[in-house]
């Protein structure tokens, strides 16, 4: 049995949180970690009690949806609400933080920002992080590491591919290549 790494474990948590997002434009999740413990989590969504983008559509001004509190901010605010210190903590986010979140993370004492995907990485945000001595580390989620029945799926796909390979046509060959890539069979 191979244990999941800390980075994958926390990054997977952020991806799980992102599935609760209520904004249809982008689903973001954030997990705040101190001493290898999850202390807070957030996703981008409306303020408590208000309507959701998924129900009413986004409220777009200048190309941005203004309805939501961003995932990073929600995670920090959860700490504020319950009195949990964020100084020297790390954050795991599904997407590179926007400029506003960047400033809030610096101000909250966050030391390392782990992000899975680049997302309009703002040059000023990068500059501010550098200035504040905050490390930004790209950690892509390895879906295979967090799939609990990956071995069974892989075996099933392998046997399906064997049957498919007998056909020898171009369509089957394309499907085989796609599956091999997805399940990292080669
Ligand atoms: Zn929205
Ligand atoms: Zn943001």
Automatic annotation (TrEMBL):
Family matches, as NCBIfam families: ComEB
The keyword Lipid metabolism is annotated on this UniProt entry: no
UniProt domain CMP/dCMP-type deaminase: residue ranges: 5-132
UniProtKB keywords: Hydrolase, Metal-binding, Zinc
The protein's name: ComE operon protein 2
Cross-referenced InterPro entries: APOBEC/CMP_deaminase_Zn-bd, CMP_dCMP_dom, Competence_ComEB, Cytidine_deaminase-like, dCMP_deaminase-rel, Deoxycytidylate_deaminase_dom
Family: Belongs to the cytidine and deoxycytidylate deaminase family.
Keyword Metal-binding: yes
UniProt cofactor(s): Zn(2+)
PANTHER family listed in its UniProt record: DEOXYCYTIDYLATE DEAMINASE, DEOXYCYTIDYLATE DEAMINASE-RELATED
CDD domains reported for this sequence: deoxycytidylate_deaminase
């Amino acid at each position: 049995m191979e244990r999941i790494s800390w980075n994958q474990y926390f990054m997977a948590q952020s991806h799980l949180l992102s599935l609760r997002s209520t904004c249809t434009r982008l689903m973001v999740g954030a997990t705040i970690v101190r001493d290898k413990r999850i202390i807070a989590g957030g996703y981008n969504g409306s303020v408590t009690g208000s309507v959701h983008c998924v129900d009413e559509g986004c409220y777009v001004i200048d190309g941005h949806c203004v309805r939501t509190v961003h995932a990073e901010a929600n995670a920090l605010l959860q700490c504020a609400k319950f009195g949990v210190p964020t100084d020297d903590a790390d954050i795991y986010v599904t997407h590179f933080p926007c400029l506003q979140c960047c400033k809030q993370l610096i101000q909250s004492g966050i030391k390392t920002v782990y992000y899975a995907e680049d997302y309009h990485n703002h040059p000023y945000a990068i500059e501010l992080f550098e200035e504040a001595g905050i490390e930004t580390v790209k950690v892509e989620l390895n879906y295979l590491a967090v799939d609990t029945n990956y071995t069974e799926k892989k075996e099933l796909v392998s046997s399906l591919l064997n049957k498919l390979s007998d056909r020898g046509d171009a369509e089957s060959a394309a499907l085989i290549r796609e599956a091999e890539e997805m399940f990292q069979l080669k």
